[in-house]
Specification:
The complex is a heterodimer of chains A (232) and B (264).
Chain A: E1 3-14, E2 17-28, E3 32-36, H1 43-50, E4 58-63, E5 66-67, H2 73-79, E6 80-83, H3 94-99, H4 108-114, H5 131-144, E7 149-153, H6 161-176, E8 181-185, H7 188-194, E9 197-202, E10 205-210, H8 221-227
Helix pairs in contact in A: 4-5
Chain B: H1 11-16, H2 18-30, H3 36-60, H4 67-88, H5 96-116, H6 124-155, H7 157-165, H8 170-195, H9 203-210, H10 215-247
Classes of the chains: A alpha/beta (232), B mainly alpha (264).
């Protein structure tokens, strides 16, 4: 299977210590790859390496065979879109927010439509939106840049049940349309609903990669504890 | 105008003005403020520093001296201001060269306007005090703008990174927050300019009137100085604001980790 991202012996060491250690991982170029693990396991750090919001202390990361260190970071981030854990909307209306992604004003209604929002949202103040609506506007804004890949960093963690279902449905539809998605979560039920393939991180290291149904066959004690719902 | 000049204040007169210091000390003791020692130290330091500066200026501003000395003094002021800026806004790495560039640019522009357009004659007694006023007012505003840029980018990190994630450059992603910081730094000078004459009589004008200058002439001088200061502050805060932001991003457009000050 073609590789979307390949991590080669990647370390990330920050002011608070080691966040990722000796990570070697391949993320396939199709479907939804879920990065799972408890809080602080390094999954968000791993995701942020994909669009160069973080840089490795050691090692290399390839994006479709090209070393990220030599790619134009601005062009990379247009190709690799991202939706953050907390919906981040800028001051002004929904239209103002979408304009930050696509200044010429075209495609706004289509982008909203893809996230199940109608055109009436365009002139609503961003501050008036519910959490679920705000996150869908963030997704629409990310899609406006016409990315090839989508990174979703715990994008449903601040949403209620119905909003979670809507966003998961949107992501599944995008993946079925051919956009590979890398999805970070600590929610095992969500992992089982979404994942075509899984990578599990514990304490900054990759402890499992493979299909969802292979997870429970692992004999890694820390991994089994995580699967049982406790932090490793 | 009365037959008086500020130079008529001798040391006896200066000593007499200590009466108000005594008043301040008495009030501090009466209200249990505990700052009597601080007042005495401040008065002592002010006297020593002012007398020292007075002696130095008497030497430099002597009409017989070369103007080179005055230009050197201006250079020292600019260097000192850049050092103070980099120390008081130490959260911004490597701020000294940016501050130095800002003050050099602002001084070059304002002194070119002052002397090039013939607003004032190019003499030591004009150059040193005017340059000092430009640098002094700009220094305070640049410390504010540098600190505000740090606070804005630290506290709104999620917004900045959301912009970066859309493919914005670090300059574009930081622009709204740098603008806010510059506005914050520039507003006090704008308000001061707005309120001059209504709320307070500024020092330059007061000094000129005390020296026997016609009040209308004193006002014209003061107005020119205030406008030049406003231009200098606008220039330096812009350079330091954008320069500070650039120091807080990596070359590949990543926002650096900005620590929160201890205790916050």
């Amino acid at each position: 299977m073609a590789e979307l991202f390949r991590f080669n012996t990647v370390d990330v060491i920050g002011s608070s210590g080691v966040r990722l250690e000796n990570v070697t991982l391949a993320i396939p170029d199709s479907g939804i790859t879920v990065l799972a693990g408890p809080s602080g396991s390094g999954k968000s750090t791993l995701l942020r390496l994909c669009n160069r919001l973080e840089a490795p202390t050691r090692g290399s990361i390839l994006y479709r065979g090209r070393d990220l260190a030599f790619e134009d970071p601005l062009e990379l981030r247009r190709q690799v879109g991202m939706v953050f854990q907390k919906p981040v909307l800028f001051a002004g209306t929904v239209r103002d927010n979408l304009a930050e992604a696509d200044g010429d004003g075209t495609g706004f209604e289509e982008a909203l439509d893809r996230t199940a929002l109608d055109a009436s949202f365009l002139d609503r103040p961003a501050a008036d939106l519910s959490g679920g609506e705000a996150q869908r506007v963030c997704l629409a804004r990310a899609l406006l840049a016409r990315p090839d890949v989508l990174l979703m960093d715990e994008a449903t963690s601040s949403l209620d049940g119905a909003a979670v279902g809507r966003l998961e449905g949107l992501a599944t539809a995008l993946a079925q349309d051919g956009m590979p998605i890398v999805w970070v979560t600590h929610d095992l039920d969500q992992l089982r609903r979404l994942a075509d393939q899984v990578a599990v991180l514990l304490a900054g290291t990759v402890r499992f990669t493979g299909a969802v149904d292979e997870l429970s066959a692992s004999d890694d004690a820390g991994l089994l504890r995580f699967l049982e719902g406790a932090d490793a | 105008m009365p037959d008086f000049a500020p130079g008529d204040v001798d040391f006896t007169g200066l000593a007499a003005s200590f009466v108000m210091i005594v008043v301040a000390i008495v009030l501090s003791r009466w209200n249990s403020l505990g700052i009597e020692k601080g007042i005495v130290v401040a008065v002592g330091r002010a006297l020593v520093q002012l007398l020292g500066i007075g002696a130095a200026l008497a030497f430099i501003l002597d009409p017989e001296r070369s103007l080179v000395l005055s230009w050197l003094w201006v250079g020292v002021m600019v260097l000192f201001a850049a050092v103070v800026l980099s120390r008081r806004a130490s959260e911004v790495p490597n701020l000294f060269p940016i501050g130095l560039a800002a003050f050099v640019v602002a001084e070059t522009i304002t002194l070119s306007v002052i002397f090039g357009l013939g607003i004032f004659p190019l003499e030591a007694r004009v150059l040193v005090p005017l340059a000092g006023m430009m640098v002094g007012n700009s220094m305070n505003a640049t410390v504010v703008v540098a600190r505000r840029v740090v606070e804005e980018l630290r506290d709104k990190r999620d917004e900045v990174e959301a912009r970066l994630a859309l493919g914005h450059s670090s300059r574009r992603a930081s622009l709204p927050y740098v603008r806010s910081a510059i506005r914050t730094a520039l507003t006090p000078q704008v308000e001061t300019t707005k309120g001059v004459g209504l709320v307070f009589l500024p020092g330059a004008m007061t000094g000129l009137i005390l020296a026997g200058v016609d009040p209308v002439d004193a006002v014209k001088v003061q107005a020119a100085i205030m406008f030049l200061i406003l231009g200098s502050v606008a220039t330096t805060t812009s350079v330091v604001g954008f320069g500070s932001a650039s120091r807080l991003f990596s070359p590949d457009h990543r926002l650096s980790y900005i620590e929160r000050p201890a205790g916050t």
